[in-house]
Amino acid sequence: MTVERVKHLVGIGVDATAELADAGAPDVLRFENLDTDVRPPEAALAISRDEVDADSANSYLPFFGANELRMAATEHVAGLSGVQYDWHRQCIITAGGCAGILNTLLALLNPGDEVVMTDPIYVGLINRVRLAGGVPVFVPFHATNGAWRLDLDALRGAITKRTRAFLMMSPSMPSGAVLNRSEWEAIAKACIDADAWMIYNAAMERILYDGVAHFHPGSLEGMARRTITVGTISKEQRMIGWRVGWIVGPAETMRDIGLVCISNVVCQVGIAQRAAAAALLDGEASFRAAVAEWQARLDCIREELKSLPLMPCSGGWSVLLDVEPFGMKSAEASKRLMERGQIAATPMKNWGSERSDRFVRFVFSNEPVPRLRGLRERVERALGRPS
Q: I need a surface site. Which of 195, 270, 284, 293 has the fewest CB within 10 A?
């Protein structure tokens, strides 16, 4: 019999799509998974090699992360938010960003508490809310004038007496939506009015395109004491397998989050921490070069699929294709894209409300521009033309 805490969890679909891609031809476009072929910072690679031989890196301690990395992560968040933090009391290093999200939710939620999220959204975040006993409440994005915009009327209507937290990601994944200042201000007002926490998933916060500005919700009046920033080196620094993230937030809640962290996973990857600190402190040039490369890939996809129902993207690693105009749901479209177009694209069913089932996701972070040429022909061979 399925236990209550996992009864509503669903698969993310990426693994099944990847298995089909692995069995396919060598020229399959790998759009299914958030990987990237853009190298991590060289300093981080060099330090990782050295740490393999370091006794100090082969330890459970310190439980909350190496001091060097905690200082670097705190400085990173402070620089982006304008909020000053005490690294010793207000920063915990985690085994990746999603582990930090789950531990934060476990520390904040009582069973039945509601968590406001945007729609569509990464199904792994939805699962973590449910695993922690929470209830996801979706606020939709709508594509308007070449960008995703949050439905502010729906936001105001989403708040109830059970609202405990807002779990916001910008750029959001899988949509590539980036919240602008006025949207953040509306979210902040709703958060304050509900006396709720803001859990800010900052995994991709600086991966922005077309000159879109970065904005951190902790910088808004009244939000510093409510905002818990969860970040990671996985995306911006391209260090996916290192499994290092951080939680930075108000001292009043970090004790509880710390107890959950010690009880779940216990500690971070030892050999990765000095490398993560180096990436945060010295990886700016390589980060900017990486964003420029990803922008070029997105631009290529936009050019290839112009006049097709490609959705807007202002940041992150993925863009959505609307397959409803082709007369399909996401699973059928994903199957055809693989079988007829040699494109591995994950169906978005369960990635938010029922409306997410009209999308498939193209992750462009792992495919260079030359391999993207001819994408339109592949898509039309697989799906035909929209009605």
A: 195
